[in-house]
Design a protein that fits this description.
Blueprint: H1 4-34, H2 91-94, H3 97-125, H4 127-152, H5 157-185, H6 187-207, H7 214-230, H8 232-276, H9 280-321, H10 327-337, H11 343-360, H12 362-387, H13 396-436
């Protein structure tokens, strides 16, 4: 009877181990039922037992022999451990490839758009300084070949710069003075011809097939007179603003002159200083793109001057033979407006036709229109492709959009600099793309 307690203890321990195994199996079954269908094990496939509950050796079948062993409480059952869940897929891999590409491109476009917006705000804040610098850059591109030619002939750099700078601005000043002088000298004659032309125009409208009556003409004249009288304050304020515009224009001219002088004299040194601001990893590519951008700008400015001069001479000769008043000032206006691509030619040509219509009549105006259209067609199909060449060729859609955007941002000055900016940007981007593919060597920076 002394061995009976030991035997009962062994039976109790065995029942405890059996209960613990049943609890573990029930926990595994509940965990498998909670898993989705794709994560459940296949039929006949068993989940490995948890390492937290190692298998204990089986007790002897009978009661132990020998000395009596102290009895004690059965071992406490450990908590069931659920099986490990299958690893989840990487979130990046779960996103479709097209969405990832769109997201990568989208945040880069947002950064570029933000940068352009900030740049436009800065340019708007210092618009006068920016336009003066760009104007000086364009004038430098026009005059720099003359400085280079004088230096090749042995002239000192300072003397060559001074001679080119003074002669260039003297010529531009004489052109402006000539235009103002011609306009002021012909103002009285033009006024008389304008009045006579308006009377002739009224008479022509009254007897024309459009059936315009004298009453309708008088109503239009009265409305114009009333509009002028009622807007006297606005016209006066516009005149005051015009004085401010004149002051800003003079300030911009002075800044452009100083910019041109220093760029002509120290252009290479200024370029080397700008290169030091570029990160060293990108410096070699920028050093190679710079001379090509300058060559494009120089070719554009020189080609535009030549084309504008040919347009002005041809149209001016046509207006002179048609006996249109102020033919020479109109030719100068055509030369100046030619620096605004597409839009400038339309405005200057329309001005010449209107002057011919008011002063000489419809027939002379029609002939002036024929002359203007013929010269512009020759310019667009012969002169520009031959003189400008492929180096500065820009698609007409890009020209229209750039001129419109430049005019909206900075007025007439923005419209003038928009196309050369697009041409230079096209050259730089093309070179950097080729440089990135290793198709062109970079320029070494000293």
């Amino acid at each position: 009877m002394s061995r009976l307690p030991h035997w009962l203890d062994a039976v109790g321990a065995g029942l405890t181990r059996l209960s613990r195994r049943l609890d573990e199996r029930r926990a595994r079954t509940e965990a498998e039922d909670a898993l989705p269908d794709w994560a459940r094990p296949a039929p006949g496939e068993h989940t490995a037992p948890s390492p937290a509950a190692p298998e204990e050796p089986a007790p002897p079948a009978g009661p132990p022999s020998g000395a009596d062993e102290p009895s004690g409480p059965p071992a406490a059952a450990s908590a069931p451990v659920p099986p490990h869940a299958p690893p989840r897929p990487d979130p990046v891999a779960a996103v479709p490839w097209g969405v990832r590409v769109a997201a990568e491109a989208g945040w880069r476009l947002l950064v570029l758009a933000g940068t352009l917006w900030v740049l436009m705000r800065v340019i708007s804040a210092v618009q006068l300084v920016v336009l003066a610098f760009v104007a000086g850059l364009l004038i430098t591109a026009l005059l720099q070949p003359t400085v280079a030619a004088l230096k090749r002939r042995g002239v000192h750099r300072g003397l060559a710069t001074a001679l080119t700078f003074i002669s260039g601005f003297v010529v531009m000043g004489l052109i402006g003075w000539f235009v103002v002088w011609q306009v002021m000298d012909n103002t009285d004659n033009l006024s008389r011809q304008l009045e006579q032309g308006l009377r002739d125009l009224k008479e022509w409208l009254r007897t024309s097939p459009f059936h315009v009556t004298q009453e309708q003409i008088d109503n239009v004249t009265d409305n114009l007179t009333h509009a002028l009288r009622s807007n006297t304050e606005e016209i006066t304020s516009a005149g005051i603003e015009g004085v401010q515009v004149i002051i800003e224009t003079l300030t911009g001219i002075v800044l452009a002159m100083f910019t041109t002088l220093f760029l002509l004299y120290d252009g290479p040194k200024i370029w080397r200083w700008v290169l030091k601001l570029v990160p060293s990893a990108a410096r070699e590519g920028v050093a190679g793109a710079g001379p090509r951008a300058w060559a494009t700008l120089t070719a554009y400015v020189r080609g535009t001057v030549i084309v504008a001069m040919i347009d002005a001479i041809c149209i001016g000769i046509g207006l002179y033979f048609l006996k249109v008043p102020m033919a020479v000032p109109l030719a100068v206006f055509i030369f100046l407006f030619a620096f605004i691509p597409l839009v400038g030619a339309v405005i200057s040509g329309a001005l010449a036709v209107v002057v011919a219509l008011v002063t000489q009549g419809p027939f002379t105006a029609a002939m002036a229109l024929v002359v203007v259209l013929a010269v512009q067609q020759i310019e667009g199909h012969v002169l520009q492709p031959f003189i400008l060449g492929r180096a500065v060729r820009v698609h007409p859609l890009a020209v229209v959009l750039s001129v419109a955007a430049g005019g909206m941002v900075a007025g007439i000055g923005g419209a003038v600099v928009a196309v050369p900016l697009v041409a230079v940007t096209n050259t730089v981007v093309g070179y950097l793309r080729a440089y990135g593919r290793g198709e062109v060597p970079g320029e070494r920076v000293r």
